[in-house]
Write a structure and sequence with these properties.
3 helices; Helix Hairpins; globular
Length: 77
Amino acid sequence: MKTLYDVQQLLKRFGTFIYVGSRLRDIALMKIELKALYTEGLIQKEEYVSAVRVLTKEYELEQSREGFKVEQEVDRN
């Protein structure tokens, strides 16, 4: 598993579609759903760890983007 899209496809296999409108919140909700799938024994540990790794990376990237946007807004004012 390498991309956020891959994680979305994994969740889709179980009928889970996540779109809140905020990418950070979407990622956080995906982590919760993955943990539930793993806890229930529906996905293997390797698949869970790989997906969480992707989501953590994406979350950090999005946070840095959001921070950059905030800095740009502050600079404009």
